[in-house]
């Protein structure tokens, strides 16, 4: 939500660009004051589209539309089963338009077409899954201890929810929030990152085509301080679901707290990927590469700390370096590309700054260590060479702070206790990886590692069926899985008296 790191505003007359509109109350609209923002292709470094520069007035009309849709009209009168039918129709449309949506995301955020196409084709499963849960939200009959009383509970939607997503996987992160929240009967305002708003607007077109009532899903765009904060602070908003930086999440949390709103925060990480000497090393090498260089390291669960048992440290790190050397960089729209550009100019600078910090701290640069100048990276993109540092200790900034780029810090450890101590010595607790053939060790590590997700002999696996979230400074609450839909409901207790007469009104029943 830092305005200083945002793309530049521009004029609506920008020639040759795609001009997007916001979706509010079932209508496609410009910002109230007509302002727009250029969005840039990270591969070429050139602007390719504009999105509206929404402000407080636009936040106000989006909240008004969402509140009206929640309180009146077809949405609150619709059965939960029929809400599920709408979600399934939306899922079908996403699948039909997967190639177009994936291409828009690649142009907008620079991630690989192979990854984004896989993501978009998987996203419908979130809507199918929670569509099936929409009419399974049941209350309970409580065998109450009071005579002549019947007590039961109802699960009801919260109201207007705001979903704020990061720039690395816009549509997937939106699905984490909208699928369970809509299934529960809430209405939404989706505010994507100002860097990558295009796919969310394309998604809005599918919401409209699916037949959702006006105002149930609204898509607004703009800078965090200008439209994000007014949304979070609005008294008619019941819940905020945020994915992004730790600083942004803290700002959301503080603002929401003033209104006693519910929040879900999925923030940063400095996840350890731990390799023991009994691991299947070929698989472990691939797992380490996947954990840090896939998605160009721009993922909250990046395995950016590689912990290797000292007995195999030199040999294993050498194999990781050799594997990373062969990574193919270039146009993310080409299926042979394995490492794409950094998504935003501020993030590009941040990654390069951290590389210099690591060198100044005494870490040994084993691979990369600067901008990528290969011909296949073009002349205008934001590429960083896959970078690996050795001789890192866990007190260095490169081991403690989230870089969010293709930078790996390698740390040796002695035994299980040492690995656990190093892994848990972090302000973050989002994810961890363990590579071992010992079932005993796998169970021990999964129990003692401080992380919301622990992967054993794999990395970066996610599913709509399994809860996802972090501990410590990595966030608050969880998304995905059966419990996610409960995060978008509130419980009401209903008491009914069967007594023939009202007893003494001055005494509590």
From TrEMBL:
<feature type="domain" description="Aldehyde dehydrogenase">
    <location>
        <begin position="28"/>
        <end position="494"/>
    </location>
</feature>
<dbReference type="Pfam" id="PF00171">
    <property type="entry name" value="Aldedh"/>
</dbReference>
<dbReference type="InterPro" id="IPR016160">
    <property type="entry name" value="Ald_DH_CS_CYS"/>
</dbReference>
<dbReference type="InterPro" id="IPR016161">
    <property type="entry name" value="Ald_DH/histidinol_DH"/>
</dbReference>
<feature type="active site">
    <location>
        <position position="266"/>
    </location>
</feature>
<comment type="similarity">
    <text>Belongs to the aldehyde dehydrogenase family.</text>
</comment>
<dbReference type="GO" id="GO:0016620">
    <property type="term" value="F:oxidoreductase activity, acting on the aldehyde or oxo group of donors, NAD or NADP as acceptor"/>
</dbReference>
<protein>
    <submittedName>
        <fullName>Aldehyde dehydrogenase</fullName>
    </submittedName>
</protein>
<dbReference type="InterPro" id="IPR016162">
    <property type="entry name" value="Ald_DH_N"/>
</dbReference>
<keyword id="KW-0560">Oxidoreductase</keyword>
<dbReference type="InterPro" id="IPR029510">
    <property type="entry name" value="Ald_DH_CS_GLU"/>
</dbReference>
<dbReference type="InterPro" id="IPR015590">
    <property type="entry name" value="Aldehyde_DH_dom"/>
</dbReference>
<dbReference type="InterPro" id="IPR016163">
    <property type="entry name" value="Ald_DH_C"/>
</dbReference>
């Amino acid at each position: 939500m830092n305005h200083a790191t945002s793309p530049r505003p521009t004029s609506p007359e920008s020639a040759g660009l795609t001009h997007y509109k916001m979706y509010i109350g079932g209508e496609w609209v410009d910002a109230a004051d007509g302002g727009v923002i250029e969005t840039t292709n990270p591969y070429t470094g050139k602007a390719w589209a504009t999105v509206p520069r929404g402000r407080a007035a636009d936040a106000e009309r989006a909240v008004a539309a969402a509140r009206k849709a929640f309180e009146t009209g077809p949405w609150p009168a619709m059965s939960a089963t029929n809400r599920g039918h709408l979600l399934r129709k939306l899922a079908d449309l996403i699948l039909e338009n997967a190639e177009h949506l994936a291409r828009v995301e690649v142009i907008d955020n620079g991630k690989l077409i192979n990854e984004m196409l896989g993501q978009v084709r998987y996203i419908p499963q979130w809507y199918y899954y929670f569509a099936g849960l929409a009419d399974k939200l049941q209350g309970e009959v409580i065998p109450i201890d009071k005579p002549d009383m019947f007590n039961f509970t109802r699960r009801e939607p919260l109201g207007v929810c705001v979903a704020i997503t990061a720039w690395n996987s816009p549509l997937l992160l939106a699905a984490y929030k909208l699928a369970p929240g809509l299934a529960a009967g809430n209405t939404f305002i989706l505010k994507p990152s100002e860097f990558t708003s295009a796919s969310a607007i394309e998604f809005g077109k599918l919401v409209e085509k699916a037949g959702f009532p006006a105002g149930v899903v609204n898509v607004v765009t703009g800078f965090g301080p200008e439209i994000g904060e007014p949304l979070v602070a609005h008294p008619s908003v019941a819940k905020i679901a945020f994915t992004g930086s730790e600083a942004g999440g803290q700002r959301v949390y503080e603002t929401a707290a003033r209104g006693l709103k519910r929040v879900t925060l999925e923030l940063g990480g400095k996840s350890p990927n731990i390799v023991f000497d009994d691991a299947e090393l070929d698989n472990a090498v691939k797992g380490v590469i996947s954990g840090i260089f896939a998605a160009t390291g721009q993922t909250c669960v990046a395995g950016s700390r590689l912990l290797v048992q000292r007995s195999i440290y030199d040999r294993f790190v050498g194999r990781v370096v050799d594997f990373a050397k062969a990574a193919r960089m270039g146009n993310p729209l080409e299926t042979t590309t394995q490492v794409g550009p950094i998504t935003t100019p501020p993030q590009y600078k941040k990654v390069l700054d951290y590389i210099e910090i690591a060198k100044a701290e005494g870490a040994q640069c084993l691979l990369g260590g600067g901008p990528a100048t290969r011909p296949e990276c073009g002349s205008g993109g934001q590429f960083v060479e896959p970078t690996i540092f050795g001789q890192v200790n866990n007190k260095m900034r490169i081991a403690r702070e989230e870089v969010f780029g293709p930078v790996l810090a390698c740390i040796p450890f002695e035994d299980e206790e040492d690995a656990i101590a190093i892994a848990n010595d972090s302000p973050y607790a989002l994810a961890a990886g363990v590579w071992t053939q010992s079932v005993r060790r796998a169970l021990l590590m999964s129990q003692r590692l401080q992380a919301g997700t622990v992967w054993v002999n794999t990395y970066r696996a996610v599913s709509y069926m399994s809860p996802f979230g972090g501990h410590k400074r990595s966030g608050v609450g969880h998304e995905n899985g059966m419990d996610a839909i409960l995060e978008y409901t509130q419980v009401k207790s209903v008491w009914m008296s069967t007594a023939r007469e009202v007893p003494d009104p001055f005494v509590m029943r």
